[in-house]
Amino acid sequence: MELTEVVACLNKLAPLHNAGSWDNVGLLVEPSPPHTVSRIMLTNDLTETVLQEGISANVNMIVSYHPPIFRPLKRLTMSTWKERIVVKSLENRIAIYSPHTACDAVQGGVNDWLASGLGEMKSIKPIIRSNIKADNYSVSIAIQSSNDKDLLDSFEQNLSQIVKFVRRTNVDAIEYECQCAKSKMKDIVDMSHTYNLDAKFNVIELAELPASDTGMGRLCVLNTPCTVAELITRIKKLMSIPYVRLSLGSDKTVTSMVNTVALCAGSGSSVLSGVKADVYLSGEMSHHEVLDAASNGVTTVLCEHSNTERGHLKSMKKSLEDMLGSSLVKIIVSLVDEDPLHIC
């Protein structure tokens, strides 16, 4: 399968417009075309060890949840590990793609996977909702109906090549209404002027609406309350980890009941700060952010950054196999990818 087709599927799985504005997502490394993809490896972090695993497995593409290129690279040499990853990937014709926060935000993504192990839910919703990506402008074009019919037919045919529109006929005018991006407006205006139809334009900038099921973090209301201790057991089982870091909220114990959990995979403080919940669940938060939560009576459970993300790779593998066809593209999950922090 061509790389462009695989990238289109990945973009459909986790639309990139849902990513944080600060993030670096999408296709990051592209071998010279044509590039056929027959084996993909999924990883949470693309380290040199993971890259060598991919090279040994003869993969043509690596999907790394975290972008290996985040800050701009001024040169591509062998002096730093991130530069070496880019150089070796290109030498071995391996494309690199990262969905990162686009995968956090989307329904069925990383945060929903994290919520899936907490128990039956009464409700679950994003803490910070994404805006629905829509065409930016509503455009109305009014043209006198007294114009030559053949001319109007030609105009409509050319307009349909640019945008989809709705045609409305009034007493003395014909109106064409459409929604389009700013880049298309120039094409519409230029095309209209070639017909000398004395067209009148009415343009309205559209506001973006918040999505109901897409966004950063999740606020979860449990169907049946459980104790802090029971919640921790469920979290450990979901992530297959033997420990968590626990900060009990003021006047709370491990037998305190939990009704609501606010969660954010990875580093969650910017999303969770100030959210009303019994428990905060994330990979990492700073010392002072945990103190703030505890003083507000919120219990915090921290599992290390990538432990709250990595488990979603199995779900991503299944989704990609369904979209790409397992007979066309073989998808594997890295066996050496792991959180860099260990308890000794």
From TrEMBL:
This protein's GO CC annotations: cytoplasm; mitochondrion; nucleus
Record has Ligase as a keyword: no
UniProt-listed Pfam families: DUF34_NIF3
SUPFAM superfamilies, per the entry: NIF3 (NGG1p interacting factor 3)-like
GO MF, one example: metal ion binding
Cellular compartment(s): Cytoplasm; Nucleus
Binding sites annotated in the UniProt record for a divalent metal cation: 66, 104, 305, 309
Tagged with keyword Nucleus: yes
A biological process term (GO) from this entry: regulation of DNA-templated transcription
Coiled-coil stretches: none
Sorted UniProt keywords: Acetylation, Cytoplasm, Metal-binding, Nucleus, Phosphoprotein
InterPro entries: DUF34/NIF3, DUF34/NIF3_animal, DUF34/NIF3_sf
Known partners and oligomeric status: Homodimer. Interacts with COPS2. Interacts with THOC7.
Reported function: May function as a transcriptional corepressor through its interaction with COPS2, negatively regulating the expression of genes involved in neuronal differentiation.
Family per record: Belongs to the GTP cyclohydrolase I type 2/NIF3 family.
Name of the protein described by the UniProt record: NIF3-like protein 1
